[in-house]
Amino acid sequence: MVVALSAVDVPKITAAFKSPPYFYDDVALLESILAHDFFNIIDGDSTLKIDFWPLKDDEYSKEQFRRRTVLNIGGRQAWALTAEDIILAKLLWIKISDSERQWRDVESV
Prior knowledge:
By secondary structure, the protein is α+β, with helices and mostly antiparallel strands.
């Protein structure tokens, strides 16, 4: 999920994802938002891991955010990157790390 967040949004996130069943590191959450870096939250019931990507202040990221789409997840609406933007993001990660996991993710999208 790509999210437009600031440090003042941390209480909203922790209220929406109460632990348990959700697991995350409070300190890492705040540090990630301040650094515009990703963080994740894990649903302890399903073990689903959701990656949250704070919106970066560059034109490419802003364009990805403008193209985001609404998904229905568990009866709730959530914004997500388009499949094309997920693939592009994964290809950029492959360029940095040449990770097999990133290749598998591209294939699954």
